[in-house]
Structures are given as C-alpha cells and as structure tokens.
TrEMBL record:
This is glutathione transferase. Residues 88-224 form the GST C-terminal domain. CDD domains: GST_C_Theta, GST_N_Theta. PANTHER family: GLUTATHIONE S-TRANSFERASE THETA-1 (PTHR43917:SF9), PTHR43917. Transmembrane segments: none annotated. InterPro entries: Glutathione-S-Trfase_C-like (IPR010987), Glutathione-S-Trfase_C_sf (IPR036282), Glutathione_S-Trfase (IPR040079), Glutathione_S-Trfase_N (IPR004045), GST_C (IPR004046), GST_C_Theta (IPR040077), GST_N_Theta (IPR040075), GST_Theta (IPR051369). It comes from the Eukaryota. It is found in: Cytoplasm. One of its GO terms (molecular function) is glutathione transferase activity. It comes from Austrofundulus limnaeus (Annual killifish). Keywords: Cytoplasm, Transferase.
Length: 241
C-alpha cells in the first residue's frame, strides 16, 4: 500500500510535500482535504490527525502531521538524493536552522499578507486597516532581508550549490504573497535569481502545477461560497489582524 498524503494545494506546506514526493517519484495517494469546505474538521480526517491541519501522512498504521516532519520522513524512508537532506552534519544543521526559523518568520509573514489582501476582504468582507497592512508588509520585508542576508548570502542555494528542503520550504511560502498580487521578487535581483534556480531545479511544469490553485486564488475567491469560513471569522481576525 502506498503512502497517503492528505493535502490541499492552497496550502504552502502541502505544496512542499507534494512537490517533494512528485520530484522524487515517491508513490503516493493524493487525499484531497478541502480546507474551505472544512473537511479537516470532519471525523475521517480526525482519525489521521488530531491537529486538524494539512499536510498529513498515513503510511500503513503510521500517521504523521507537520510538513517538516513529513518531508524528513519521506527523505529518510525513500532515501532521496543527499542534497535534499544532506548527511553532512553541518549542512543538515543548516537545513534544520532554516526549517526551524521559517515557521514563525517567513511562513507567518507570507501567509498573513495573503489573508489580509485576499481572504479577509474578499471572502469575509471585512475591511483591513491600512496600518495592519503596512505592519504586515514591514514584517515580510524583514524576513525576506534575513533570508537573503543570513540564509542565502552569496550561495546559489541555502546549503551551497544544491537545492535542499530549506529552499523548497522557502519558495512555497514566498509564493503566497505573490499569489495575493504582491510581487516580492521585483526589485530583489538576488532573490529572483534564487527563485529561478529553485524553479529550474524543481522543473517548471511541476512548479506551475503545484502552484496553479494558489495562483488562481484571487479569481477563485470571488465566486467562493465563504459560508464555512465565515463561521470562523472571529478566530481568523484574531489570528491575522
Ligand atoms: N506547522 C504546520 C502548519 C500546517 C498548517 O498551518 N496548515 C494549514 C494550511 S496552510 C491548515 O491546515 N489550516 C487549517 C486550520 O488552521 O484550520 C506544518 O508545517 O505542517
């Protein structure tokens, strides 16, 4: 029985898991969990992950949540090429360093822009005060600066000349504000050259396929039935505003 991956490609961590599995020819069954229909709150998904977030994995009687844990599990179980998750202890530590940092920095700052620019005004119909938007943008820019100055420096990729899990997790998060109409790569030549290398390493076809849902999201949300999401308006506003 192949691995089951519970995914919604609206979600950045789902895209990293999806791209990683596809790129490495890992056999898996795609189990769609629609976040906007609240499927992650259903009984079936509760048996896979009590955290009730995607991505999640089931491999026989073994269930796993958290994208980073899933990526590492797949890398180790399927012995993917060393560059993704290097055996060298210092290179691996660099990958861990980025994966640890990004949760509360790049990921949070990127996703916040998406919610403030797209989901909250369009789907929930709540106006976002300009100062909230300005602060979110400042935070995102600070994370992007840190990514360039600390994690990338003058290297081609985070860990040198080969793409690793760190680059994969970084690019999917950076695409979230891009999908919200904010081109973070404009005026950042070093970052856009890195983005081009990452896209080439993944393969443009797979990259675009994985990002299609999110890149179309500004159109999708206009006709979306937001009733499920609206039930969570207070929680969403508490999180992002
Ligand atoms: N730290 C988790 C984050 C997962 C996560 O936040 N997933 C979001 C989609 S991007 C989700 O499932 N949200 C549903 C909810 O919060 O109700 C990971 O890296 O897997």
């Amino acid at each position: 029985m192949s691995v089951e991956l519970y995914l919604d490609l609206f979600s950045q961590p789902c895209r990293s898991v999806y791209i990683f599995a596809k790129k490495n020819n890992i056999p898996f069954e795609f189990k769609k969990v629609s976040l906007f229909h609240g499927e992650h709150f259903g009984d079936d998904f509760g048996k896979i992950s009590l955290i009730r977030k995607v991505p999640a994995l089931r491999d026989g009687d073994f269930c796993l949540a958290e994208s980073v844990a899933i990526l590492i599990y797949l890398a180790e179980k399927f012995r993917t090429p060393d560059s993704w998750y290097p055996a060298d202890v210092r290179q691996r530590a660099r990958v861990h360093e980025y994966l640890s940092w990004q949760h509360s920095a790049m990921r949070w700052h990127g996703v916040r822009i998406f919610w403030l620019r797209v989901m909250i005004p369009v789907v929930l119909g709540v106006e976002v005060p300009q100062e909230k938007m300005d602060t979110a943008l400042e935070d995102l820019n600070a994370s992007l600066d840190l990514f360039q100055d600390k994690f990338l420096q003058d290297r081609a990729f985070v860990v040198g000349d080969r793409m690793s899990l760190a680059d994969l997790v970084a690019i999917v998060e950076m695409m979230q504000p891009v999908a919200a109409g904010l081109d973070i790569f404009e005026d950042r030549p070093k970052l856009s050259a890195w983005r081009d290398r990452v896209q080439a390493a993944i393969g443009k076809e797979l990259f675009d396929e994985a990002h299609r849902t999110i890149m179309e999201s500004q159109e999708t949300v206009k006709v979306m039935d937001g009733s499920t999401l609206k039930r969570f308006t207070p929680k969403i506003l508490r999180m992002f505003m």
